[in-house]
Specification:
The chain starts with a strand and ends in a 25-residue tail after the last strand. It contains 14 helices and 20 strands. The chain has helices spanning about 20-25, 40, 50-60, 85-105, 135-150, 165-170, 185-200, 230-240, 275-290, 300-310, 335-345, 355-365, 445-450, 470; strands spanning about 1-10, 35, 70-75, 120-125, 155-160, 175-180, 210-215, 245-250, 265-270, 300, 315-320, 345-355, 370-375, 390-400, 400-405, 415, 420-425, 430-435, 460, 480. The chain has 2 domains: about 1-295; about 300-490, no CATH class. Residues about 105-115 have low confidence and may be disordered. The protein is about 25% helix and about 20% strand.
C-alpha cells in the first residue's frame, strides 16, 4: 500500500496588504522551512503537527502482512499574511502534483489522467488559504491533484480549526478531519485521525459525508475551546453515539477572509447518508442556538490597562493584543497598547513580541547596557497607528533562535532574526521583546530566554489572540482582550466585506 503525503499550509488574511510569496514558505520562522522527500518525515518527527500524527499512525499500522509505504513529497507553511501569490501557489502545487505523478512513473506533462501508483493521498492543509486567483486555495489544490490521480484514489486531509471549508473541498476529498482545540494542542491527533480514516477507506470501508455551513461569522477571540459555548459543542462532538467510525467535525472559520465561503461549518461522516445528515444537522443546530454566546469581549486599550492595574490579585494580568496577532496576519508592530501602558503609567510590564527589524538592528549596534533613542513599530500603515517615539535601555541581545517549551510547539524552534530586550526610559519598568521577523507570542520562551521571571510581572502583554493561553493562562489572575489597532480586526462589523455569500451575519 503506497500513500503519498504532503503539507501546504497558509491562513490568509485578505485584509492584510502584503502578499505571501514563495520565499515566505521557504524560510523558517515559527514553522520549519520548506522541506521535501525524506526530510518531511525526519524533520517533523516528535512535533505537534498534523503530518507527524499521520506518519506515526501509518507506521503503527504497518505489519508484515499489510505493508504501508509512505511517499513523502513536500511540507511547507508560511506565517499568516496577505493573499498567496499565484507564483507561490503554482510552484508549490506543481511540486506536490509532480511528486504524485513521479510516484506512478507518469510524466508531469501527461494529459491522459492516468491513475497514480499511489493507493491513497494524505494532505496536511489549513483550510483558509486564499490566492491571488482563487478564493478557495485548498479546493483548487485538490482539483489539480484530482486531475492527476483521477476520481477513485482516496484523499484524506486534515484542516485547522479556523478553516473556511467549501463544498469543493468536501466533494474532492474523501475524508476531512479538523482540529478540535484552540489553542491547537491536538494538531498531531487530527492528522492521526485523517490517516486512520484513510486506511479504513483503503480497506474497503464505505463512508458518506454531510456538510452544513453556519449562517454567521465567529470572531477568533470567541473561539476559545476551554470555555463555553465552544467547550459544550466539542464535547457533544466527542460523545457522538453510534458506529465507532461515525464522527463529526466543527470548523469555526477564519473571519479575516473576504470570500464567499468565509465562516463556520460542520462536517459529518457515517456509514449511511442518513446518519451523516442527522449528525451534521444536530451539531449545526446546536451551534446556531448558541450564536449570541460567541462574544469576543473586547476592551479598548486605555480602559483595559486601567482595569489590569486595578486588579487586586498577586498573579499577573494578561493583556492580549488580539488585533495585532502575527498568527492571524497581523504586522506585529502596532503601538496602541504600548502607548496606553505608558499613558496610564503602568508598572512591572513585559510585552512581546514586537516586530521591528530596524529597531532590532539599532539595538544590536548600540549594545547591551547602553541607551538609544529610536522610533519603535507603527510602520505598517495600520489605521490610527504611529511609531512609538522614546528612549530605551538595551538590556539584552539575542540571535533570534528560540526553543519552544510550551504545549503547542514544545521542542520546536522559532526563528525571529536579530532580537532584543529593551526597557522604556522614564517608564515604571516596562520591558519589550523586539524581533526582526513577525512571530506570535504563544510561548514563554520569548521571555524566559532573556531571563525574565514572568511571575514577578504585574502585566504581561502579548501579541496573540488565543494561542498564548496554552503556555500563559496558568500564570494569570485575569485575561483581557484588548482592541488596539491592528490588521486583524476582531470587531467584524468594521470590516469592509464585499464577497460574503448572501445571508451571512457578521455580528
Amino acid at each position: 500500500m503506497r500513500i503519498a503525503i504532503a503539507g501546504f499550509q497558509h491562513e490568509t488574511n485578505t485584509f492584510a496588504p502584503t502578499p505571501t510569496e514563495y520565499n515566505d514558505f521557504v524560510m523558517a520562522d515559527s514553522w520549519p522551512g520548506l522541506i521535501t522527500d525524506q526530510a518531511v518525515i525526519t524533520a517533523t518527527q516528535g512535533m505537534n503537527l498534523p503530518i507527524t500524527g499521520a506518519i506515526e499512525t501509518a507506521h503503527a499500522h504497518n505489519t508484515p502482512q499489510h505493508q504501508i509505504t509512505l511517499i513523502p513529497l513536500l511540507w511547507c507553511a508560511a506565517e499568516p499574511g496577505g493573499y498567496v501569490s499565484d507564483d507561490a501557489f503554482d510552484r508549490i502545487s506543481a511540486k506536490i502534483c509532480d511528486g504524485i505523478a513521479a510516484a506512478s512513473g507518469c510524466a508531469s506533462d501527461c494529459d491522459d489522467g492516468c491513475a497514480s501508483g499511489c493507493d491513497g493521498v494524505y494532505l496536511d492543509l489549513h483550510g483558509a488559504m486564499v490566492t491571488s486567483s482563487h478564493f478557495d486555495g485548498e479546493g483548487e489544490l485538490l482539483r489539480r491533484i484530482r486531475a492527476s490521480i483521477g476520481p477513485d484514489i482516496p484523499i484524506a486531509i486534515s484542516l485547522d480549526l479556523h478553516a473556511n471549508i467549501t463544498q469543493q473541498m468536501v466533494d474532492l476529498a474523501d475524508l476531512i478531519t479538523v482540529y478540535r482545540t484552540y489553542p491547537h494542542l491536538d494538531m498531531a491527533a487530527t492528522g492521526a485521525r485523517a490517516m486512520a480514516g484513510l486506511l479504513r477507506l483503503l480497506s474497503g470501508e464505505n463512508i458518506y459525508a454531510a456538510f452544513r455551513q453556519i449562517p454567521f461569522l465567529i470572531a477568533l477571540p470567541a473561539q476559545y475551546t476551554g470555555h463555553d459555548p465552544c467547550r459544550s459543542i466539542y464535547n457533544r462532538i466527542a460523545d457522538i453515539p453510534g458506529h465507532a467510525h461515525d464522527f463529526a467535525e466543527f470548523a469555526m472559520g477564519f473571519s479575516a477572509a473576504d470570500i464567499p465561503d468565509c465562516g463556520a461549518s460542520v462536517l459529518a461522516y457515517a456509514s449511511t447518508p442518513e446518519q451523516a445528515a442527522a449528525m451534521a444537522s444536530d451539531i449545526s443546530e446546536m451551534v446556531i442556538a448558541r450564536e449570541a454566546d460567541f462574544d469576543p469581549m473586547l476592551i479598548d486599550p486605555y480602559p483595559a490597562v486601567i482595569q489590569a492595574m486595578a486588579s487586586p490579585h498577586q498573579k499577573p494580568v494578561i493583556l492580549a493584543d488580539v488585533q495585532d496577532n502575527p498568527g492571524a496576519g497581523g504586522s506585529g508592530d502596532t503601538t496602541g497598547l504600548l502607548k496606553a501602558l505608558c499613558a496610564a503609567d503602568a508598572e512591572h510590564v513585559v510585552f512581546g513580541v514586537i516586530c521591528d527589524p530596524d529597531f532590532a538592528r539599532a539595538a544590536h549596534a548600540t549594545g547591551t547596557g547602553n541607551n538609544m533613542t529610536h522610533a519603535l513599530g507603527g510602520r505598517s500603515g495600520v489605521a490610527d497607528d504611529t511609531p512609538f517615539e522614546a528612549s530605551f535601555t538595551v538590556e539584552a541581545l539575542h540571535d533570534g533562535i528560540f526553543t519552544y517549551t510550551g504545549a503547542m510547539y514544545g521542542g520546536g524552534h522559532a526563528e525571529t532574526g536579530r532580537s532584543c530586550l529593551v526597557s522604556v526610559t522614564g517608564a515604571r519598568d516596562i520591558r519589550l521583546v523586539v524581533s526582526s521577523y513577525r512571530t506570535q507570542c504563544l510561548d514563554q520562551c520569548f521571555f524566559t530566554s532573556f531571563g525574565i521571571d514572568l511571575s514577578a510581572a504585574r502585566i504581561i502583554a502579548l501579541k496573540s489572540t488565543i494561542h498564548y493561553r496554552a503556555d500563559f493562562e496558568h500564570l494569570a489572575s485575569q485575561i483581557i482582550h484588548v482592541a488596539a489597532p491592528g490588521l486583524f480586526e476582531c470587531r467584524l462589523n468594521r470590516l469592509p466585506y464585499r464577497h460574503l455569500r448572501g445571508g451571512v451575519r457578521i455580528g
